[in-house]
Amino acid sequence: MSATSEFPARLIEGYRDFLAGRMPTERERYRELAKRGQSPAIMIIGCCDSRVSPEVIFDTHPGELFVVRNIANLVPPYAPDGVCHGVFAALEYAVQVLKVKHIVVLGHARCGGIRAYAEHGPPLSPGDSIHKWMSLIAPAAELAGPRDGEGDYLTRLEQASITKCLENLLTFPYLADAVRSGRLFLHGCYFDVATGQMFVRDGAGYREIAHAGPARAAVAG
Ligand SMILES: [Zn+2]
Q1: What is the DSSP letter of 53?
Q2: 25: buried, middle or exposed (CB in 10 Å: 19+, 13-18, 0-12)?
Q3: What distance in angstroms lies between residue 52's CA and the mean position of ligand 1's atoms?
C-alpha cells in the first residue's frame, strides 16, 4: 500500500451516515448477532457488478443473507481437486455449518461478464483469469441456443447461465443430499438493472415478482 494512499472519502462519509442512521435502529440486532452468531436462512450467489447488491435489492437487515459474489454469479461444477476455491468454501460453510434453507442464484441484465463471453472481445485474452473463469459459461451458451434465435441473445445467455449454475449446485454431493431430503431449496432469479424488475425462475421460464406484498415470500419464504 502506498504511503500516500488515503482511505476513500466516500467510504468514510457512508460509514458516518451508517453510524448516524442505520446503526441506531439496528443496534439491538447487531448485539444479538454478536452474541448468538449469524444464522442466515438464505444464501445468495450474485455478480460482483456494483449495481446488483443483494442487500440493497432485497432490502435486508444484517444477518439475513449469506452472500458470495463473483464475476457473472457463476457456480463451477463440483471438483474435489484440492484447489482453493472461494465459491466451494462459501457453499460448504453455508450448507454444512450455517444450514441455510435456500440458495438463490441472482443473475442480472447487462452483465459485463456474460457480454464479454458472448463477444470474446478485448480487454480479455486467453491468458487472463477472467477469460478462464468465463469459460464456465460455455455449457450455458449451448443451452441458450443460436444467437439469431428468438428474443435477445444476451438475456437468453444470462438466464441459461442461471439454469446451469443451479444444475452445477446439484453436482456437490452434500448439497444434492440436502435438496433431496427437503432441507435445502434452490432458486434462480434475474434482476433487470434498467427497470428494477425482478424475475423468479419458475419451471422453464421466469415470472416477475409483483410490486406489492405476498409475492415477496416467493423468494424469501
Ligand atoms: Zn454481472
Answers
A1: -
A2: exposed
A3: 8
The burial class, CB within 10 Å (0-12 / 13-18 / 19+), for 157 is buried
Of the candidates 66, 75, 84, 74, the one whose C-alpha atom is nearest the C-alpha of residue 47 is 74
Across 102-117, b (16+ Cβ under 10 Å) vs e yields bbbbbbbbbbebbebb
Helix and strand counts by DSSP (H, E) for the chain: 10, 6
Q: Which residue has the cell 415478482?
A: 209
C-alpha to C-alpha distance for 167 and 172, rounded to whole angstroms: 10
Place of cell 415470472: 207
| Ligand 1 center to 72 CA (angstroms) | 4
- For residue 191, the one-letter residue type is F
Give me the pLDDT at residue 62, please: 94
Q: What's the 119 CA to ligand 1 centre distance in angstroms?
A: 15
Report CA-CA distances (Å) from 24 to 15, 17, 29: 13, 11, 10
- Cβ < 5 A residues, ion ligand 1: 47, 49, 111, 113
pLDDT for residue 55 is more than 70: yes
pTM of this structure: 0.90
**Domains of the chain in sequence order:** 1-37 (no CATH), 38-220 (3.40.1050.10)
Ligand 1 centre distance from Cα of residue 180 (Å): 30
- What is the number of other CB atoms lying within 10 angstroms of the CB of residue 171? 13
Report the pLDDT averaged over residues 156-173.
96
Q: What are phi and psi of 43, to 5 degrees?
A: -105, 135
